[in-house]
Amino acid sequence: MARYLLTRAWQSALTLLLSTIVVFVGVRALPGDPALALAGEDRSPEALEAIRRHYGLDQPLPVQFAQYVERMAQGDFGVSIRTGTPVSSMLTTALPVTVELSVLAILIASALGVGAGVLAAVRRGRPAEWLANGLALVGLSVPHFWLGLLAILYLSVATGLFPASGFVPILEDPVDNLHHIILPAVILGTGLAAIIMRQTRSAMLDSLSSDYVRTAKAKGLRPRAVITRHALRNSLIVVVTVVGLQLGGLISGAVVTEQIFGLPGFGKMTIDAVFQRDYPVIQAVVLLTATAYIVINFFVDLLYSVIDPRIRVTGDPA
Amino acid sequence: MTVLTVPMAETTVSVTRRARVLRRLRRNPLAVVSFVVLALAAATALLSPWIAPYSVDQTDFARTFAPPGTPGHVLGTDDLGRDVLSRIMLGARASLQVGLLAVATSLVIGVPLGLAAGYFRAWDAVISRFTDLLLAFPFLIMAVGLAAIRGASLGNAAVAIGIAQIPGVIRVVRSDTLRLKSLDFVAAAVVDGASDLWVLARHILPNATSVILVQATVAIPAAILGEAVLSFLGLGIQPPAPSLGTMLATAQQFAARAPWAAVLPGVVIMGLALAFNVFGDALRDALDPKEDRR
Amino acid sequence: MTTPSAPVLEIRDLSVSFPTETGTVSAVDGVSLDLAPGEIVGMVGESGCGKSVTAMSIAGLLPGSARITGSVRLDGAELVGARESALRRVRGQEIAYIFQEPMTSLNPVLTVGRQIGEVLQVHERMSRRAARARAVELLTLVGIPSAAQRVDTYPHQLSGGMRQRVMIAMAVACGPKVLVADEPTTALDVTVQAGILQVLRDLRDRLGTSILIITHDLGVIADIADRVVVMYAGRVVERAPVDDLFARPRHRYTAGLLSASPQPGRHAGTDRLTEIPGLVPVLSTQPDACTFADRCPAADATCRDAAPPLEGIGGTDHVAACWHPCSTAPQEATR
Predict the structure, then answer these.
(1) What are the residues facing C15 on neighbouring strands?
(2) How many CB pairs lie under 8 A apart between chains A and C?
(3) Three-state SS for A296?
(4) Which residue from A289, B173, C168, C310 has the least number of CB within 10 angstroms?
C-alpha cells in the first residue's frame, strides 16, 4: 500500500509540474509583450520596467519559471487588469460558489445514477430497464446549458418556484442558498448522472453474473443482501473511477451553468476574463483547475484503496 | 434431432464478420432509425447552402421575432429578422463539421499514441503521464486558454474539443492493443520475424478498428455538445456565422420577447447527439454480442 | 458401501432446458439419482454433459429462464417449483455448494470471516461477533492453520487451496445435510487436491454430510466416491458402485472414458491412452435414440432407433443405458 501511494504521489507531482510548465509557456505565448498584458491601465515605461523587474521578465527562462512557481505557490496570481483587485481575493469569493455547486451536482448525480443503474441491472429486460436506459441516453445527449435555459424560462420565470439567477452565500442564509443553487446543481448533474448510470449498470451486470454472487445466492442470502453487500460493493469501485475521470467535464459544465444562472462563481469569472482579456485571471483559472483536477484525482486513488482491499493490502491495482 | 452448430474457434475472416455486424445492425430497429436520422442530417448539412430557403445573413427588420408558423418563415425569424429554419440548417452543418474535425484531431494523435503505449512497454509510462496532463485541462478550460492566446473561432473550438478527447482514444486503443498483442496470431507474426511497425500496421491496427469506430461514434456527439457550449459562451463560432449554440445565446438574451426561440436549436442539438449515441450503442452491441449490455 | 436407509436427496426424472436465441437447448434429460445419508456420490462426464446444470437445479440456482421438470426431494420435501423463500431457507443451511474457482467464487472485497459469518447470521440468527468466533472454529475444522489470524484476511491473500478450504468452511457452517461440490479440485494443483478431498472425507465421517461431487476427473472419483453416476449429453448412461464401475464398465461411453484416462498400473508402460472421437452434441430436443451412437464403436440401427433404458444387468445397483453393453469380464485396455 505504501508503495502504491508513493507511486501515485510521485506521478501526481510530475503531472502537476508538467501542467505548470504548460501554463507558463502558454502565458509566454500570449500575443504582445507580457509586461504590457500585466500592466493594466498604467502603461508608462517606468511602470512596465517595474513590472518586468517584479515578474523577473528580464531573467533567463529557467529562472523565470522558478520565480513563477514560487509566486504561484504563495498564492500570488497577480492583479486583475480590469478590476485592479488581487486575483487571489477574487478566487476566495468565487471558489466557494463553484465548489458548492459541483459537490451538490456530484451528490445528486451519484444518487440518481447509482440508483437507476442498479435498478436497470436488476430489472434486466423489463420496462424499468428500458426507461432507465432511455433516460440515460437522453441525459448523455442533451446540452445541459439548454436544459438550464428551458428551466429558467419555463420553471423559474413562469412559476416563480426557483429564482432565475443570483446567489446567497451559505453562511448568510443556508435555506435561501439551497433555493438558489439546487436547480443549477440538478441541471449540472444530469450529464454526470447519465454516465454514472451506464457504468453502474454495466458493472452491476458483471457482478450479478459473477461467481461470488452465485456463491452468495447459494448461501441462501436474500436478494437485497446479494445486491447491496455483494454486487453493489464491487460495482462502486467503478463509480468512483467514473466520478474522478468526469471531473474535467464537471468543471466545464460548472462554468456554463454559472453563466446561465448568474452564479458569481469561478466559471463566470473565467468567461468575463476571456472577453476582457484579463490575462492574470485566465492564467490563475487554468492553473488552478489543473491543480484541482490532479489533487482530487490523487484523493480518488486514495479512496480506491479504502474501497478495494486488493489495493489496500498488496498494492496491486485490481 | 437437431444438432446445433457450436462455434469452435473465432475465425478472423473479416468479410463474414463485417456481414454479420451489418446483419445485426439491420435487425436492430433503433440502429436503423438512428442511421436514417444521421443520413438525413448529413444530407441536409451537405446541401444546406443550396436548399436553405433564405441566405443566413438576409435580415428583415420589418419582421423580427416572427413566431413559428409565419408564412414564408416556417420556424419564424430571429432578432434581426433572419430565417430560423435556414440558420438551423447551417448551424447543424457547423455542428457536424466541428464534431468530425474534433474527432479527426483526437484520432490522428490518439491512435498512434495508444498503439505505442500498448505495444511498447517503455513508452507506456511516458504516454500515460501525457494522458494525465491532458486530462488536467478540461475542454472548456483548454478552449479558454486557446481563445486567450489565439482568439475564439470554429477551428480553435474544434482543436480544444479534439485535444480533450485524446485521452479517451489513447485509453481504448491501448487496452485493445494489449489484448491483441497477447493473441497467438500476433505472437506468430513476431516469431516469423515481422518488424514492430509491420505487426502494428498489419495485425493490430486493422483488428482495433472496431473499438476505434465505437469510440468515434461516442466522441462525435460529445464534440457536438462541446461546440454548442463554446459557441453559446462566445468561445466558438463567431457571429454572424450561424451556430446552434449562438442561436441559444441570442434566445437567452431575448427570452422575454421570444421564448420559443430557445426550444428548436436545442432540440436539433439533442437530436443529433442522440442519434449518434443510439447508433454508437447499437454498433457496439453488433460488434460484440457478448458485451450487449454496455 | 451403499446404505439401504431412506435417501436424503431423491432426484426423479429431472429435465432442464434453456431457451436461447437459436432455439431451445436441452441440458438435462430425465436424470434420476439418490443420495443416502453420509454417502459420497460422484457424477462424472465431459464438459457440457449437464452435470453442473443438474447440480445447480437441486437448490433452484439456475437462472429464471431455465425450464425445469421432474422432482427433487430433500427429506421428502419437494424443491422443484418450491417458493423462493422456502428455497432460500434450504440453501446454505440444508444444501450447501462448493464451486470450481475458489478465486472468483469468493467476494474479493469482504474478509473470509465475514463471508463465512454471513451464512450463520442469515440461517442461525447469530450476531456478527458470534458468527466471527464460529468462523474461526470452522476454519480450524477445514485445516487452516492460525485460523484466528486468517479470519480477517481477504481472499486474494490466500493460496488457491486455502481459498477452497474457506469455501468448504462456508458450505458446512450450518451443518448441511447435502453438500454439492462442483469440480472442487479442478482449479487446484494435484498436491493440493488430495488435501481438499481429505477434508471432504473427514466432514462426511464427522458430520455425516452426504456429498454429491461433480468432476470430469476419474481419479477424484476413484479416490473419494462410494457410487458413480456417468452422464452423457444430459442423460445418465451408467450408475454403479465405484469399484464395480472401474472393474466392469458396461456402457461403451464409460469404457471409453476409462481408457482415455491413465490408470495406475494399467497404462504404465507402452499402452497409449485412447481418445473418444467426436464431440458431445448440443441438443435442441432429446431424440429417441442413443445420443452416444455417433461416437460409439458398437452402434448399429437399434441404437439410432430407440433410446436404451437404464437397466441392471448383473446386480440391481449397477445399471447402464446401452443396447450393446460391454462384456462383464474385467476390462482390458482398448488398443
Answers:
(1) C69
(2) 84
(3) helix
(4) C310
Classify residue A228: in a domain, yes or no.
yes
- Does pTM surpass 0.80? yes
ipTM for the assembly: 0.84
- Whether A109 is in a domain gets the answer yes
What is d(CA C199, CA C144) in angstroms, rounded to the nearest whole number? 11
Say yes or no: A234 contacts chain C, CB-CB below 8 A. yes
- Cell numbers standing for residue A21: 510548465
Pick from A220, A308, A313: CB nearest C91: A220
Query: What's the rounded Cα separation, in Å, for the pair B247 and B20?
Result: 43
CB B48 within 8 A of CB B93: yes
Q: Is B232 exposed, middle or buried (0-12, 13-18, 19+ CB in 10 A)?
A: buried
CB contact under 8 A, C23 and B4: yes
Positions in chain A short of pLDDT 50: 315-318
CB-CB: which of C282, C287, C289 is closest to B4?
C282
Q: What are the residues facing C238 on neighbouring strands?
A: C230, C320
Query: Based on the structure, what is the number of domains in chain A?
Result: 1
- Among C93, C105, C167, C212, the strongest candidate for a mutation testing the A interface, having the largest count of A CBs within 10 A, is C105
pLDDT tens string C134-180:
999 999 988 888 989 999 999 989 988 899 899 999 998 998 999 99
The span from the CA of B54 to the CA of A69, in Å, is: 55
Q: Which residues of C touch B6 (CB under 8 A)?
A: 279, 282
In order of their start, the domains of chain C are 9-102+177-334 (3.40.50.300)
Which chain B residue is nearest to residue C294, measuring alpha carbons? B3
- Measure in Å the smallest separation between the Cα of C21 and chain A Cα atoms: 15
For the beta carbon of residue A22, count every other beta carbon within 10 angstroms: 18
Rounded to a whole number of angstroms, the distance between the first and last alpha carbons of chain C is 33
Strand C77-78 and strand C67-74: the pairing is: antiparallel
Which residue range forms the structural domain that includes residue A163?
Answer: 88-273
- For residue C122, give Cα distances in angstroms to A217, A224, C85, C90: 12, 13, 13, 12
Chain A touched by C272 (CB under 8 Å): no
From chain C, pick out residues whose CB is under 8 angstroms from the CB of A212: 104-108
C23 touches chain B (CB under 8 A): yes
> Residue B267 has which C-alpha cell?
432540440
The C-alpha atoms of residue A184 and residue C86 are separated, in whole angstroms, by 49
Q: Look at residue A70 and tell me if it is in a domain.
A: no
Per-residue pLDDT tens digits for B93-138: 888 989 999 999 999 999 999 999 988 888 888 998 999 899 888 8
Interface contact A256-B221, CB threshold 8 A: no
pLDDT at C3: 46
- Tell me the residues of chain A between 2 and 61 that have a Cβ less than 8 Å away from chain B: 11, 14-15, 18-19, 22-23, 26, 29-31
B45/B41 Cα distance (integer angstroms): 6
Assigned domain for A120 exists: yes
* Cα–Cα separations (whole angstroms), residue A273 to A43, A82, A84, A220, C95: 20, 8, 13, 62, 70
